[in-house]
Amino acid sequence: MLTDDGKHLYVSWDEYHLLTERLALKIHNSGWAFDQILCLARGGMRPGDILSRVFDKPLAIMSTSSYRAEAGTIQGRLDMAKYITMPKGELAGRVLLVDDLADSGVTLKAVVDRLRGMPAITELRSAVIWTKAVSSYTPDYYVEALATSPWIHQPFEEYDALRPEGLAKKLSV
């Protein structure tokens, strides 16, 4: 649900899964056949896992991080993992890059540039759930274009501040 001022978007688990399923159908309906999925950790892990299962394709993971200050709301320096984790082989062929959103676009653009420099990748496309208007990079596939560029409150954010003690208290009720 988008707030009246357009500054915040609150997403439930049901909405999150529905949007991910819509993303899967968008990719499928494009007719593009890909060989592997590379998801960006952490945001792309949930949609990447679902897409990997729906398309029955191997899932690779690459860690990236740029949100550091003000409880993760101010973007800092981009850190990109040196290695990509895969069950076997190398990242090659037609690769679908998956993240949750194109926020500023900095992370996606940097990863796309790095991957395009890998000779084993013959074709690369990107997919996200949300693309913000302020993004400098537009993915090949996305479900929602957010004109107001709101802060997205995803359903799993409750775990950001939940520690084992709090979880124990929550589950003992």
Automatic annotation (TrEMBL):
Single GO term (MF): glycosyltransferase activity
Keyword Transferase among UniProt keywords: yes
InterPro entries according to UniProt: PRTase-like, PRTase_dom
Domain Phosphoribosyltransferase: 13-158
Transmembrane segments: none
Keywords, ordered alphabetically: Glycosyltransferase, Transferase
Top-level taxon of origin: Bacteria
Keyword hit for Protein biosynthesis: no
Database matches in CDD domains: PRTases_typeI
Protein name: Phosphoribosyltransferase
Organism of derivation: Ideonella alba
